[in-house]
Amino acid sequence: MFSIGQLSKRTGVKIPTIRYYEQMGLIDEPERSEGNQRRYTKDGLSRLSFIRHSRDLGFSVEDIRGLLDLSQHPEKPCSDAHSIAAQHLQDVQSRIAKLRRLERELKRITKCDAGNVAACAVIETLADHGLCETEH
Amino acid sequence: MFSIGQLSKRTGVKIPTIRYYEQMGLIDEPERSEGNQRRYTKDGLSRLSFIRHSRDLGFSVEDIRGLLDLSQHPEKPCSDAHSIAAQHLQDVQSRIAKLRRLERELKRITKCDAGNVAACAVIETLADHGLCETEH
DNA sequence: TATAATTCCTCTAGCCACTAGAGCTTCAAG
DNA sequence: CTTGAAGCTCTAGTGGCTAGAGGAATTATA
Ligand SMILES: [Zn+2]
Ligand SMILES: [Zn+2]
Ligand SMILES: [Zn+2]
Ligand SMILES: [Zn+2]
After folding, report:
1. pLDDT at res. B46
2. Does B96 reside within a domain?
3. Looking at the domain assignment, is residue B8 inside a domain?
4. Whether residue A119 has pLDDT greater than 90
5. What nucleotides of chain D have any atom within 7 angstroms of a protein Cβ?
6. In this structure, what CATH number is given to the domain that contains residue B25?
7. Which domain holds residue B66?
8. Ligand with an atom nearest the CA of residue B77
9. What's the B64 CA to ligand 2 centre distance in angstroms?
10. Ligand 2 centre and the CA of B85: distance in Å?
11. Does B97 contact A at CB distance below 8 Å?
12. Cβ of B116 and A74 within 8 Å?
């Protein structure tokens, strides 16, 4: 049996975050000590590790809810898991694409030879999207 | 003089967002009609366009506050503007790097030949970071 | 000019995924 | 048995908006 602090140390999930996941229904309410403190089992530990890793990989809490549900049903086909992952991959890729467009513009902007604000390329570009090379 | 709706159409910033920017102190409180409705000048329009474009480029509201302040002082050196932009560029680049690591892992994960959850690579990987190739 | 349609007003609350803090209780070591 | 760490609940704040209620003002049409 682990206290919430031990669980936190082992998973790297902060204590208030563990309680938040409980409130969100991602983890079951654990047993309590006589004095009402949470006591977790190994199952609780591995479930939280799953959540932690999924968050690290950028899945939303909603996605994780679905993935956890699936993981409780080993006999089911895994196509649902794949579509959650594929959708997430797409999201990540479109975020990357957007950030790369930003990166390009920001790199261009920061090549400013002027010394004062009146002629600064940064300020000028922010004031006028027409000076940009791409859409965003 | 523009109404808030006209300003919104010209800049592409939604009406509640304009009011939000006013509340946050990014734009001055505009004059009002006899019936208390906001009336904007061309100056208000260009200030809001500046904000819009800066947001599109991913700058935070705090950054924009600084950039707007600078843009009101054309005689100042533009080094402050450059450091805001450079910092932002760094942020963008580290976000890209992080997302690319995610992308790689997600691509790997989604190569699953199993048909059911019990043997699914997606679920297995989420349960065990040891199966990952990179840190995240 | 009367009425109808549209726009605008303020205020509050919700989104996501946490994070911080107040004020109190329980636990574990010595 | 005392003390200090760790736990409890509850509320509120983060960023950058967005939605909705309930009412007032403006504009367009008849
Ligand atoms: Zn410059
Ligand atoms: Zn632009
Ligand atoms: Zn699979
Ligand atoms: Zn991993």
Report:
1. 97
2. no
3. yes
4. yes
5. 6-10, 15-20, 24-27
6. 1.10.1660.10
7. 4-76
8. 1
9. 15
10. 14
11. no
12. yes
Spatial neighbors of A30 by CB under 8 A, at least 6 apart, are: A22, A38, A39, A40, A41, A44
Which amino acid, B55?
R
Percent with pLDDT over 90 in chain A? 96
Say how far apart CA A38 and CA A34 lie, in whole Å. 10
Average pLDDT on A89-105 reads 96
| The predicted structure's pLDDT at residue A136 | 87
**Nearest one of B41, B1, B42, B50 to B21, comparing CA atoms:** B50
Mean pLDDT (chain B, rounded): 96
Q: Give the closest nucleotide to B58 (alpha carbon vs C1').
A: D16
**Domain tally, chain B:** 1
- Are B95 and A99 inside 8 Å of each other by CB? yes
Q: In angstroms, rounded to a whole number, what is the distance separating the alpha carbons of residues B58 and A33?
A: 48
- Would residue B87 count as lying in a domain? no
The separation, in Å, between residue B2 CA and nucleotide C5 C1' comes to 20
A40-96 pLDDT, tens digit each: 999 999 999 999 999 999 999 999 999 999 999 999 999 999 999 999 999 999 999
One-letter amino acid at B24 equals: M
Of all nucleotides, the one whose C1′ comes closest to residue B24's CA is D16
